[in-house]
Predict the structure.
Amino acid sequence: MQHRYFRPIVQTDPCRPEGALTLAGGWTWFSDVEVLHRDGTRGHLPARALPEEARAALTAHRPAIAGLTMDRPRLMGILNVTPDSFSDGGKFAAPEAALAHGRALVEGGADILDIGGESTRPGAAEVPVEQEISRTAPIISALRAGGLSAPISIDTRKAKVAQAALEAGADLVNDVAAFTYDPGIAAVAAQAHAPVCLMHAQGDPETMQDAPHYDDVLLDVYDFLAERVAAAEAAGIPRARIVVDPGIGFGKTLEHNLTLLRGLSLFHSLGCAVLLGASRKRFIGTIGDARDPAERMPGSLAVALAGAAQGVQFLRVHDIRETRQALRLAEALWGMRYA
């Protein structure tokens, strides 16, 4: 029998029918699922007819990640301490600027900070390990020394960088290569009992946008992440500590990105928390007629809210205050206790 993929058709309406299932123990629900096949055929099932394993993966409560409960969307504030990131390269490369911005992000509503010392924008070159460590670990140490208690994520592909960051006070390892660039990073995270985020990317940053191709982008990305989750579990990282990210903009065309965004709820079938990182990316500027990344905040808000409406637990964004305000309004309209 051909393998089937189950995508919950997610709802937020307060008028919830009897028998609807709660998605991932969170704030959304579903009463129907779309059934996808590799041959391109699609169908529907009522949620009550789901196979037990699929039902369990979609409905199981997601445990807290880095101390953050998964009962509402969480905002991950982006702190790039790089000279060449696509949106804010160089703005926070100086330690004083980085520290001030990190504190401002938390004060503005960030639940967790994501600190990166190597740009992964299209065309970016690799940064030497020691340089990446020197950019990130001292900032993490200084934030902790200054009393910052919010969780911190280290955005890196490299085991030594992750190790230094965790020793400096980071809580989560966010690997855009999902342990394929430096497999040693899995052991570092496992030994530290740290949660991880595994992201899909086709190719490396230098070449990923040259000619991205997929047989079926939604199912290809899903299968890749399923394999990487299994690899993380084999390395000693339980599924309860794994977040998955479909990697919007990483080796994807505009149409690939839109297909992934429309089908985001499929990734809940992996039984993990889901992260969406689309803030200020090129496709938003293309559709929204905003050449300058700094002008893409309104489009970024639209995408973030669409992700939250599909039950995405982490939203990785630049514009924290604006996204927090938008999210509060959305939560109020969905009948949630907004905070």
About this structure: The mean pLDDT is 93. The first strand starts at residue 5 and ends at 8.
